[in-house]
Design goal:
Blueprint (H helix, E strand, L loop, with lengths): L2 H24 L15 E4 L2 E4 L4 E7 L2 E6 L4 H11 L7 E3 L2 E5 L5 H38 L5 H34 L2
Antiparallel strand pairs: 1-2, 3-4, 4-6, 5-6
Helix pairs in contact: 1-3, 1-4, 3-4
Organism: Limnohabitans curvus
Main location: cytoplasm
Subcellular location: Cytoplasm
Length: 186
């Protein structure tokens, strides 16, 4: 493996860490409803647990309500129970075949709790990026130790890896700030 390979692999993995962080942020509830909010809810579908999106169409009904349209009629009650039993604090109601999921307004205290969750998730993402930096630097040091690269190459590579790390951490900070703003806006 060359230094260029190490840099490329590290940058790819850091990008994947940011993508995972971004995905976890989409599950954190803000003031407005999002169909992605129900992605984590699992429904019993003929003996196996599957996400709601695989047994129903989830969409926005209006600014404060999600609608869940089951593809099979008998699934309605199971979906409603799964949403009610989830830790999202939602209270769905059936209207024929359509399940309405009204979003209760969030209190100021709950908003502050959610910003703490966002910061914790962000810190975990930063730790993952820093671990990738450490692994890349160790791989470069191993190349120098095995005499496959010079010490000058090592210094340049470590500086480049640090620049990539700094840019990814800045991107994580931007995601945290935008999510906090989204949560705190009423």
């Amino acid at each position: 493996m060359t230094i260029a390979d190490i840099k490329k692999t590290t940058e790819t993995k850091m990008g994947q860490s940011i993508a995972a962080f971004s995905h976890s942020l989409s599950k954190i509830r803000t003031g407005r409803p999002s169909p992605a909010l129900l992605d984590s809810v699992q429904v019993d579908y003929y003996g196996s647990m599957v996400p709601i999106s695989q047994v129903a169409n989830v969409s926005l009904l209006d600014a404060r309500t999600l609608s869940v349209q089951p593809w099979e009629k008998p699934m309605g009650a199971k979906i409603e129970k799964a949403i009610r039993d989830s830790d999202l604090g939602l209270n769905p109601s059936s209207m024929g075949e359509l399940i309405r999921v009204p979003m209760p307004p969030m209190s100021e205290e709950r908003r502050k709790e959610l910003t703490k969750v966002v910061r914790t998730e962000g810190e975990n993402a930063k730790v993952a990026v820093r671990n990738l930096r450490r692994d890349a630097n160790e791989s470069v040091k191993k190349l120098v130790k095995d005499k496959l690269a010079s010490e000058d190459d090592q210094k340049r590579a470590e500086a480049d890896i640090q620049k990539v790390t700094d840019s990814h951490i800045a991107e994580i900070d931007k995601l945290i700030a935008s999510k906090e703003h989204e949560i705190m806006s009423v």
